[in-house]
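QA checklist item 7 of 12: single-chain prediction sanity check.
[x] sequence parsed
[x] length recorded as 107
[x] structure emitted
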Amino acid sequence: MLLTLEEIKAHCRLEADFDEEDSILDLIGRAVVQRTETYLNRKLYPLDAKIPPDDRDGLHLTDDIKIAMLLLASHYYLNRTASSELEKNELPLGFIWNVQPYRIIPL
């Protein structure tokens, strides 16, 4: 997995031994990876993995993409409802800002 449960917990400032929400955090981690790959139109691989030769657009997980994924994971964790009384704004230095340079837009 590109994001570990431990990384997600640390980013969300949860205690490592807090396991009551591990299943939702695991789901969030998988969803974040899928969302990132879908946005980028690229498959992500761990740094130590070899990108298959038939995957011309494959990309190793860079630090900035990983940070973007953790930002998205913490957003999903902290905002679990579809509506809020507070005004929500997209953070310009958030997910899109970090992953945009790697995006492939098919024509």
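[x] summary fact logged: The CA atoms of residues 23 and 85 lie 27 Å apart.
[ ] second reviewer sign-off
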